[in-house]
Amino acid sequence: MNIMKIVAALLIVILFFVIHLTAPNFLPEIIELLSHGDIVETADYIRSYGSMAVVFAFLLTLFVNTLGFPPAIIFSTANTLIFGIFWGIVLSVAAETVGVTISFQLLRFFFREQAAILISKSKFLSKIDHYSGEKGFIVMLIARMVPYVPSALLNAAGALSSLSIRDYFIASLIGKFPSTGIEAIIGHDAILQEEDPTRIIVVVIFAIVLIAWAWRYEKKTKANLDK
Q1: What's the whole-number average pLDDT of the chain?
Q2: Which of 8, 133, 157, 216 is the most exposed place for a label (fewest CB within 10 A)?
C-alpha cells in the first residue's frame, strides 16, 4: 500500500509537470489568480477563454474544491456573473461536487489507513466512527447545506469517517445546492448592487424539500440494509 501511495503521489506531481510543459504560463497565472481571491478578476479571467469559458470554469471550480482553498464562494459567484444565477449555480454545484469527491477519495486513500489504526485504539473514536457510518449521510448533508463552512474541513472529516463514497457524493451534491446558491446569490447581488430576497427564499424552501427527501432516503436505505 505504501508503494501505491508513493506511485500515486508521483503521478500527481507528473501531471502538474506535464501541464507546466504544455502551457508554461498557465500554473503561474492560476496561482496568482488564487492568491488575489478577487471575484471580478476571476470572472474576467474565465471570460478570457471565450467559447471554452464554461469548460474552464467547471475545471477551475473543480480544482479549487479538490484543494479545499481558496473559498469556493469566489468561483461560484464568478460563475453567476458570467453565466447567470441559475446556470452559474448549477455549474458550480456540479463542479464543486466532483471536486470534493476527488478530494474525499485522495484523502481516504492516503490517510484513512492511519486513521483506522488510531480509531481502533480508542473506544470513543470507534463509537464516533461507527456512528459516522450509520448517520454520516444526514450529518454530512446538513453540514454541506450550511453556507461558508470550509470545504476542506468537511472533505477531511468525510474521508476519515466510515461514510461510503456513494452517500458522501449524494450528500455533497444535494447539500451544495442551498449553500452554494445562498453564497453565490449574496455575492452576485453585492457586486452588482442588486437586491432580490425572493431568490434566497426560493433556495431556503428548496433546501427544506431536499432535507425531507434526504431523510426519507436514509430511512429507506437503512430499512433495505436491515432486511
Answers
A1: 81
A2: 216
